[in-house]
Amino acid sequence: MAAKAPRGRDFDKMKIIITGGAGFIGCNAASRYLRRGDRVIVVDNLGREGVERNLEWLRPQGALEFARIDIRDRSELSWLFGQHRDADRVLHLAAQVAVTTSVTDPRADFEVNALGTFNVLEAMREARMEAAFLYSSTNKVYGEMTDVGICESNGRYAYQSLPTGVSEDRCLDFHSPYGCSKGAADQYAIDYHRIYGLRTIVFRQSCIYGYRQFGAEDQGWVAWFMIAAQLGRPITVYGDGKQVRDILFIDDLLDAYDAAFSAREAAFGRAYNIGGGVENVLSLQELISYIGERQGRKLPHAYDNWRPGDQKVFVSDIGRAKAELGWTPKVTCARGLDLLYDWVSENRELFLAPAPAESAL
């Protein structure tokens, strides 16, 4: 049950804290809540490309409060959550998102993803908050899944024996510092429900794409390919391009957040695989072909070695989310790619800052 609203507060509206709220997913979530009339507290250290532009985009949309805090700062975080102990929801999105960065700087990766999440959970526990808490985890908690047979079909990789994709019953097998840090946080979130009664929910998200995704990091390959193609920047494919993901459009992810928060006790302490599922699978080569068709010419690109911990295939089994949350994706892969390509084309000025480092899946 959510914390009671203080006197004078509109009972029909909510107070929502979003860590990483100026990032791609965070700003889209904040925008949805602000437009509903909710009060949104965005917590972000503004350390990533494009986030300041996202924050300025959010400011005129409603009752926004911004706190420039790094989640590694325990004291600042505790103070903030103490000030907002009456919040109804906490959406924890702040993270270090790149596998490659985790390999080169595993300490920083651990401090942001594992320790940072621990700090958020502790801040909530110490403030005796009753808010529902949703943690954005990753499919990387399942590791490389080398025991699962992989075949090649129609020019892309596929599972031999998982017709509906990877379910939550799959054993966790953290691979790469990023997988370890996100996986540790994933398990802390679940255990804080068991041990302390926090109202926690975990989403093990697959490939999310959509508006205001600047694609400057190793995560965000769909957006990055589209941005790079339209600005004439070089594109590198790590691996052979046959690797696939189930992709999920941002609007569908936000619908899933709403569904999980609305499910309340039924979702607390649970983990859900959230992605496009078997009906929305895309390979790198297929994305390159799509962009080429939109541009009327072949898209130039180079190849490089596979990266540590990269999965040839990941497709989410979203059956649990369908059954327990009543959620299913509505935006098809084809429709989502069109929406994002058109948005990038209409907002080219947002991407004319100095070019980011090359990136791929």
Name the helicity range: 25-40%
- Overall structural class, as computed from helix and strand content, comes to alpha/beta
Major sheet = 7 strands, parallel
- Separation of the first and last Cα atoms: 40 Å
The chain-level mean pLDDT equals 92
Number of domains: 1
User: Can you identify the CATH class?
Assistant: Alpha Beta
What's the order of the H and E elements? EHEHEHEHHEEEHEEHEEHEEHEEHH
CATH H level, superfamily name = NAD(P)-binding Rossmann-like Domain
As a whole number of angstroms, the C-alpha radius of gyration is 20 Å
CATH architectural label: 3-Layer(aba) Sandwich
Total number of helices: 11
Poorly predicted regions are: 1-11, 355-361
Strand order within the widest beta sheet = 3-2-1-4-5-8-12
The coarse silhouette is: globular
CATH topology: Rossmann fold
Question: In words, what does this structure look like?
Answer:
With about 350 residues, the chain is α/β, with parallel strands linked by helices. It has a single domain, classed as 3-Layer(aba) Sandwich (Rossmann fold), CATH 3.40.50. The chain contains eleven helices and 15 strands. It has a seven-stranded parallel beta sheet with strand order 3-2-1-4-5-8-12, with helices on both faces. Strands 9, 11, 13 and 15 form a four-stranded mixed beta sheet that branches. A two-stranded antiparallel sheet has the order 6-7.
